[in-house]
Structure formats: C-alpha cells, structure tokens
Specification:
By secondary structure, the chain is α/β, with parallel strands linked by helices. Helix content is 56%, strand content 9%. The chain has 24 helices and 8 strands.
C-alpha cells in the first residue's frame, strides 16, 4: 500500500465528522498515523502519545492518568462511525485495534469488510416474513450439533438410606431442569446409549457426616476425560428439609455451566477461537452473538449479522438462529446510533419468525423484549419477559437479561430483584447488565452506589461518563464531575450536553433522562464564575427550558 494513498485517506477522515469536530481526536489520529508512516510505530506508547499528541506535561504518568486510553476508545468508536456512514465506500480502512495504539491500514473489499445497508436485508430474502421462498445458497458457515450431556446417578458414599434418596432425587432434578435449555441434548440415566452419543458427563457424590450433607458435582468432557468444572456444596440440615438444599445445588450448577457465559459456552468459544481460521469447520451457534455482546462494536455486529443471515437462509427452521439474528438487528439500532430504525423493524420480524418456529425459544422472548424496550413500549417488553421466564425459570442468563431490561424500562424494583438474584449466582455479568445496577442506584438517588457500579465497567461509553458526572454533581463533587466529562468529551458543547433528545437516546425511561439532566444543570450552574461562567450565564437561559 502506497504511503500517499494512506495520507489521502487520513485527510478524508480528518475533514469529516465526527473527527473534525474534536481537536483531541484530530491530533491523536494524525499523530499515530504520521508516526507509523514514518516508520516510528514502535514509539507509539501511552507516554509518547500523551506528551506529543495530547500536549500533556513531561511528568505525565500513564499509570495514574488514563487520558490516552480513554481517547483511544473514543477514536476507535469515531472511526467505526465514520466507516459506517461517510466512509463506507472509501478504498482504504484505517483501524486502531484494541490493545494497541498502532494503526492498521488495509484495502477494503467485500470480503475484508461488510457494510450494513438497507439493501443487505433485501439480498438476504425478498420476503422477510416468509424466507422459505428465497432460494437456498451454499452455506457460508456450518453450525455444530447441540452438545449432549449425560447425567449419571449421583453416588451415595455413606451407608445411610436417606442419603440414597437425596442422591437419586438430585439426579432426577438435575436431568429434568437441563431439558429446559434448548441448546443442549440430555441423556437420562436410564437409557442405553452408545459411547459416542455423549459429549459431557455430569455426575457427583453425596456424603452424610454428623448432621451435614456434603455434595460434590463434576462436569467432565467425555472424549478427553478432562474435568472442566467441579464444586462442593455443604450444609447442616435435617432430612426433612433437604429438598431446599437440592434446589440450591441445581440452581447454582445450572448458573455456572449453562448459558452464554457458562462453562459449556466458554469451552466451545475457546476451542473455536484457538483454531486458525482455515481450521474452523464448524461453529457453536452462539459464537457470533457471544463476541457481539463482549466487544459491542461494528465489526462484531457485521460478522454476526452475516453469519446468522447465512444460517437461516440455509436452515429456515432454525429458531435459535432467528432469535440471535433478531437480537443482532436490534443491537444495530443501539450501536450505530444514527437513527437506524431498520434494525428495529428487522429485529421484530426475526423475533416473530423465531417464535413461529419454536414457541418455547426463550432467546426469542429476550429479542422481542429488547426490541419493544427500544421502541419505548415498556409494558409490552415487561409482558414478553414475564412470558419467557416461565419457559425456563432456572436460566440465570435470562434472569439477568430480564432484570436489566426491566430496569431500563422503568420497572426498577422487579428488575433489581431479578438482577440481584442472578448476580449472586454469577457475579461476572456483561457490562450492560452491570450498568443497570448503576441506573437503579441513580434513580433511587444513591449516587455513590451509581458511581461504584460504573467504575466496575471496563468499557468506556459516553452515557457511562455522563451518568457518572451527574452522580458526582448531585454529591457536590464538582471537580470530579468535570474531570469525567473532560476526559470523555472535552469538546462537547454545553447545549449538546443538556439536549434532552440526546439524553433520551442514552437513558430510558425519560424520567431517568430528566434526572440526569438535572444533575448536569447543577454541575454547570456551579461553574458560573470566571470567563467560562460568563459564557454559561449568557447561554443558560436558552438551554434550561
């Protein structure tokens, strides 16, 4: 690639929104690209960028001041937004991969980068309500078969007859509840199966010691005999109430091994990611959705949309793929952030198609509820979630999703109850569910708690910074509030900061957006002194309405 071509592409980006409206991002991008083209990419470290590009003092300490990492995140988002809109037809892509400050240059082609357009849906099917009418195409991806779990009888390692009843009941209970998860097959202990029919074995032992029941549970990969997970449960109980202990064990085991973030999911995700691309002959069906939730960026969204479109084109009865495609399209509306209403319409269509093919597909209820929430149909979203949880009440994934979505829909107490329950069983929730804790705390005016939850989130987004700044303002810690805002958007005009329509995009329902706005007003009014204050005094009457 010629240096002149990259320089021309750099000028295109620097002269277009959103980069040109930010002097910080302009300096950052221009510096890292120029240094790379000059053969000095090895020098692109946090300190160098902070001092030379962001004009920090010579005693700048990246270990204390995270300003470079913050602006790098902003720049990555701005580049993705640019290539989604104004730069979608540009011949060269300039990207700054996560974990590095060195830009990567590549020619854009249909294979290198997909561009989401309204036509992409039409290429998939001429009739979205009846995709069976579209002609089948050669499969681009092959989906792995559902993994099979055999639940072996739990062993009684004592002589007490009552322990045998406990062990047998626990085996039956575990088997029954696993069957509610649509992404696995369960072999019951009483059936004869060939040795090749199982992928995983779940088993355990039960012991009674001086009034205490101790239970060991193990998950083993059948082919390799590798123990993937194990946990010990122990409680001092009487045999009259041992069913409560069984409930506790089953709930915890299912929370840890099942779901998008469970042991089984990570096993297949890691196995696939550790292969070279040419070695990947098949994928777990949740593979692309997992990476979308994890990264929540346009490349992951584009890859997920293409993959699930290919799957349902070639397997029009795959309800789970339709449900994931629905969630991907709905996420498109959030991630693109350019009023992309087509994503909501497609998400609704695909969610309905999923339920049409499998009325017990819990992922479809999640997809449709998220879609309704973004349409501000909060009661409809809540109703869909309540319907879906009846299908599998023990899905910790669903419970966490439902709790967070209810909080975002304004049903704070019910949402917090479910989210707390899910968090107790699995504290490693995705960032957007952790953020729901901050929304709840802020709504209840527990502003220190809101700050606590936002600081647990590694991802940097503008709405997190705004929520944190408003929380600091209500606590009258104005210096911290301004530090948070200046690090994320130092060039953001005051009228944009207080624009209610803009805040409504970030915060739902509107009552929360209004509460955030009050905190920002409080912050700005506090700064009504000096030159900056004089400017604010002149414009505040036109902003506060």
């Amino acid at each position: 690639m010629l240096r002149e071509e990259v320089s021309i592409q750099l000028r295109r980006i620097l002269n277009s929104a959103p980069i040109m409206n930010s002097s910080v991002l302009t300096q950052f991008l221009n510096f890292v690209v120029s240094e790379t083209l000059a053969g000095r990419s090895d020098s692109l470290k946090e300190y160098t960028i902070g001092v030379q590009a962001l004009k920090k003092d010579a005693d700048f300490n990246p270990q204390i001041d995270s300003i470079v990492r913050i602006h790098a995140g902003r720049l990555r988002r701005a580049l993705k937004e640019y290539y989604y809109e104004a730069g979608q037809n540009d011949p060269i892509v300039i990207d700054i991969p996560k974990g590095s400050y060195t830009p990567v240059f590549s020619f854009k082609s249909d294979k290198d980068m997909m561009v989401l357009t309204d036509q992409s849906h039409d290429e998939f099917t001429s009739n979205p309500l009846d995709p069976e009418l579209s002609s089948p195409a050669a499969p681009a991806v092959t989906v792995q078969d559902k993994p099979t779990i055999e639940v072996l009888p739990f062993k009684n390692v004592t002589s007490q007859k009552e322990v045998q009843f406990f062990a047998r009941g626990l085996t039956e209970y575990m088997s029954a509840e696993l069957t509610h998860f649509r992404n696995v097959k369960v072999i019951t202990p009483d059936r004869e199966q060939s040795s090749k029919a199982r992928d995983f074995v779940l088993t355990g032992s039960v012991q009674w010691v001086t009034g205490r029941i101790r239970t060991w549970v193990h998950l083993t990969h059948f082919d390799t005999q590798e123990q993937l997970w194990a946990q010990t449960f122990e409680r001092h109980i009487s045999f009259e109430s041992y069913w409560e202990f069984q409930e506790e064990i089953v709930n915890q085991v299912l929370a840890e091994i099942m779901g998008l973030y469970g042991i089984l999911s990570h096993f297949y995700i890691n196995k696939t990611d550790n292969l070279r691309p040419e070695e990947r002959t098949s994928y777990p069906i949740h593979y692309w959705y997992f990476h979308l939730v994890k990264n929540f960026d346009l490349p992951a969204l584009q890859q997920a949309k293409q993959a699930y479109s290919d799957i349902v084109r070639n397997d029009p009865n795959n309800a789970l793929a339709y449900a994931y495609l629905s969630q991907v399209c709905t996420s498109e509306r959030v991630l693109v952030n350019v009023g992309f209403e087509r994503g909501l319409d497609d998400g609704l269509t695909y969610g309905q198609l999923s339920l049409k093919r499998d009325s017990l597909c819990q992922e479809a209820y999640k997809a449709l509820a998220a879609n309704q929430m973004l349409r501000e149909h909060y009661k409809d979203a809540a109703q869909l979630l309540e319907q879906g949880i009846r299908i599998n009440p023990k899905s910790n994934d669903y419970k966490a999703f439902m709790g967070a979505t209810l909080i975002y829909s304004g049903f704070y107490e019910r949402g917090k109850e479910l989210l707390d329950e899910a968090f107790q069983r699995d504290p490693y929730l995705p960032w957007w569910q952790v953020l729901a804790f901050a929304y709840y705390a802020f709504n209840r005016e527990h502003y220190q708690d809101a700050i606590f939850w936002t600081e647990r989130i590694e991802m940097t987004t503008e709405k997190i910074s705004i929520l944190k700044a408003a929380s600091y303002a209500f606590l009258e810690n104005y210096s911290m509030a301004f530090d948070v805002l200046s690090m994320d958007r130092p060039d953001l005009p005051v009228d944009q900061l207080l624009d209610l329509n803009r805040l409504n995009v970030f915060f739902t329902p509107q009552t929360l957006a209004l509460q955030v706005r009050e905190g920002l007003k409080k912050l700005i009014q506090h700064q009504s002194s000096g030159v900056f204050g004089i400017v604010l005094i002149l414009i505040l009457p036109f902003i506060f309405y």
